[in-house]
Amino acid sequence: MTDTTWPYLDVHQSRTHDPTPYEYKLAATLEEVFTKDGHELTDVVRGLNSRQVHAPDGTPWTEESFRTEIHRLGA
Amino acid sequence: MPLSRQATVEHIYATGLRNQWHPVVPSSFVAPGAMRKVTALGEPWLLFRRSDGTLAMLADRCPHRSAPLSLGIHLGDRVACWYHGVEVATDGTVSAVPGLPGCNLEGRKLVTSLPVREVGGAILAYFGDEQHPEPAELTLPEPLTDPGTDAFLCYAEWNVPWRYAVENLLDPMHGAFLHHESHSMYDGDTTAKFRIRETDRGYFFEKTDQRGVNFDWVELCRTGVDWVDLEIPYPLSAGPGGPFGIVGMVCPVDERRCGVFFWRYRRVRGWQRDTWRFLYRTLIEQRHWDVLEQDRAMLEALPADADQQENLYQHDLGVVRLRRLFRAGAESQSVTS
């Protein structure tokens, strides 16, 4: 009934699950794209596709498919 | 009433100012239908949530023989003390004395019940003394209410006096040294001049010769709850949206412990918001945590009399002002003044 655990020190407070290998790879590639290619949506789609990091179904990203997938992942 | 006991200047200065709101714990710490014992402003409290989500905060002390109500039983809309079964409603009224029905304790409001609000995933409570039981007006930090701003709360418990944790936030220059090895505060000059700029809700403490490069400014805001606002640039890897901000609050737990609340926020919408949230959860949150651990390691290592033997310089004006504000507040609230 009571919880007196002290201290509460939890690195991850925003996650709903441990990231999958796919999510880790996408995140790391996005950071590389943002660093080297730019911050526009067109840069993101081009950067991911040129690095062969494709959508979950294996097809190249489009702006629409990226918007949909990143909304699923980041909502 | 609990908040009047030992209310000397030193006690208030050490355990937090009264007659204002303070954060207590994250909302998620008290599930529907659950209770949780917490300590705040040096006193034990019981957080009690009904199954419909309604939250109450009671002094953790049965009015009969002072047993902790947190050891008791959740009865839906009231708690039953484990010791003799005395039932206390969420407004602090004794609703039943099962051992002696009709006993004169019944119907009397004998337990302190604090006003509570839930904001940005955190529980805030108003800690008034006997002369100020009605909650002070509360103006929430804009980054937590603005629909164009997205925020994640990070909460941590430190073995640090609450005031040292606030002072750390009014000391931007430590960013260039303590956090030099970090993902966001590696850049900028390691010398600076600072100034204080008064506002109608507190003050800015800011560098005069550098902006937008490191942790270069902070605003103390006193809007019914004490909080700080600050901004730190992200590296290019964090994508569009510019710098991230922090709304910081500190819960005074007791004389040597505090709970820190950091909302990391960013002004992002649409796919940029979704991308930041995805990167935050996957990679960035860990890096922010590593920075916070640098603060915790340093502050927990400070000696108990850290603020008794100092030689301050120009960079400490923000801290000096803060201490003056808190000290004056403690003096005005003291029963011995």
How large a portion of the residues of chain B is in β-strands, by DSSP E? 25-35%
Structural class of chain B: alpha+beta
Are there runs of chain A of 5+ residues with pLDDT below 50, and where?
A: none
How many beta-strand runs of chain A?
A: 0
Provide the succession of SSEs of chain B: HEEEEEEEEEEEHEHHEEEEEEHH
CATH topology type of the largest domain in chain B: Naphthalene 1,2-dioxygenase Alpha Subunit, Chain A, domain 1
According to DSSP, the number of beta strands of chain B is 18
Helix content of chain A: 40-55%
Distance between the terminal alpha carbons of chain A, to the nearest Å? Answer: 33 Å
- Residue share in helices of chain B? 10-25%
Quick one: overall form of chain A?
elongated
Main beta sheet of chain A, described?
none
Strand content of chain A: under 5%
Regions of chain B with pLDDT < 50 over 5+ consecutive residues?
none
The overall pLDDT of chain B, averaged over residues, is 95
Largest interface: A-B, 36 and 42 residues
> What number is the mean pLDDT of chain A?
94
Shape of chain B: globular
Pfam family, one (chain B): Rieske
EC number (chain B): 1.14.12.22
Organism (chain B): Streptomyces platensis
Protein name (chain B): Aromatic ring-hydroxylating dioxygenase subunit alpha
